[in-house]
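Form 12-C: Joint structure prediction
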Amino acid sequence: MLDLSDYGTSDFFQILKRRHPELLATLNSSDVVSSGQVTEASFRPYEGTTVLAVVYNAGVVMAGDRQATEGYQVGERRIQKIYPVDRHSAIAVAGAAGPCIEMAKLFQVEVEFYEKTEGVSLSLEGQANFLSHLVRSNLGLAMQGLIVLPLFAGYDLKQQRGRIFKYDAIGGRYEENDYYAIGSGGKDARTTLKKRYTPEINRQDALAIVAEAIWDAADEDIATGGPDLIRKIFPTLYTVTEEGVVEVPETTVEELYRELISRL
Amino acid sequence: MSTPYYVSPEQIRQDKEDFVSRGITQAKEVVVLEYRDGLLMVAENPRKTTFKISEIYDRIALAAAGRIAEYEILRVVGIRESEIKGFRYYREDVTAKWLTNLYSQHMGAVAQAWDAKPLEIELLVCELGAPDAPANSELQNNRIYHIAFDGIYSEEERYAVIGGRAAEITGILEQRYADGLEMAAALRLVTETFRTIEADAGDDYEITPQTIEVACLERTAERRKFKRLSTDEVTTLLDS
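Section 2 - Result
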């Protein structure tokens, strides 16, 4: 007979923790790796990133570079750092790639599970709060250097605007009104955004400053990948509006960069 | 000390079947049928939030006739088990056949337990074929599984009906159903069938966009193929 005991909870994370802790190897981590075993010399996770979000007049743009770094080596050139969560939200991740991808995947399933079982979407605020909880669950690994820091953004259907949430390592949740960037190149991207951002910016201009911010981050930070015109690898850009989460086509991103380069 | 009665296994089974069928014969019907772009599911259900048809997974939906509370538990557990399986392996590995077995075992075990009452529901597990599978591959085919209260299930083709008057409705569909119907035509076929059945029953119960629940698994949709149609969308389709 099926186990009906946890019928009634809409929290998938809770169900996995109780029934299948083996599927949460990293997010349930305190006992998996004892303190001090993960050292920089013995193990280098993929990390290094620039991901950002910018509020514009119809919602929010999210963007991320494509490079994963392993120490001083390029680990992966085409990695995805932005993941759509539901129809009106997306998550960007920075930190150790393995736990990052796991957290993004789990978060996406969590939100969808809630929506399917309850019959209504989890509110944007509710999603942002739940993510705090996931980040905090990773504290054990974060203390050993395998940190995961998400940037969460979405279109708030009630307030009719784009919203951005950033997090600290122990799960603190902070809302940003205009833009934010995290990862090793985050500070460089923020500098560009600070100079170029104007409130109520339109989509076209928002995409342009986002492309420029990632360019500047890649210029200053060795762990951030810029546009690769030879391999045709470009940063990923998403718009999140009332109509949904849409990836900006690669050809449009390429045009943005060709235009940017022609101005340099 | 009293001597326990002897009751034959046949008698136990018959009693349970009688008990369930009393409930099921009163249950309003749910129809699922293939249309040009997927699977259309229609139920007689005037309620706005207690549904008889719902999304389980990317290409899988569940419909039920009978006690809504019993269905509700199986719905949530189905979503849970599917998400766990998809999280453990890969989303494509969650199939209607697997889910049907899961339900079937559960319903069978409940029906056979001497101290439990059988579930008073019938289920349809519906799966849209994988649109990105190679042409002519088995994976392109839609699947419909009908599970009875005791867990016995059968695979249906093109359309399936559950509920009290399932046999009558199947009879009408046998005559009128055609392959490749557009969604509007398929929906009209079902509503007209419902009307015929209600008229035969001498009921003045009206079939309107407000009294039916409509959902589909649509081939052209993104990853999540399930879509619930709003009353407005149903009205537009019926008027077209």
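Section 3 - Comments
Chain B has a mean pLDDT of 94. Chain B has six helices and ten strands.
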